[in-house]
Specification:
Length: 88
């Protein structure tokens, strides 16, 4: 979501879980990705607005297709957190 929009559904493949399939695709953009790598996390924060737009589009596309794979509603949480931050 942080680099490009995709509506590719992720499913388990032979020995790979859905999560591992997602990570495999993500490593095309972040080859040095590992869990808890703070440098990559900091870099992703700068791409947050792109990810939010892509998540919103993903959710709309999923509703149109009547399928939740793939989709994300994490953008709703981030938007709410931003609204709460503005209030304070």
């Amino acid at each position: 979501m942080h680099y490009v929009y995709t509506d590719k559904p992720y499913n388990s493949k032979s020995h790979k879980s859905r999560a591992k399939c997602v990570i495999s695709d993500f490593k095309k953009y972040e080859p040095k990705y590992t869990k808890n790598n703070s440098k990559i996390i900091i870099g992703l924060i700068s791409k947050l607005d792109i990810a939010l737009r892509n998540a919103e589009l993903s959710m709309k596309t999923a509703k149109d297709r009547k399928s939740t794979n793939p989709s994300s509603n994490l953008h709703l949480l981030i938007e709410e957190l931003r609204r709460q931050e503005e209030k304070n």
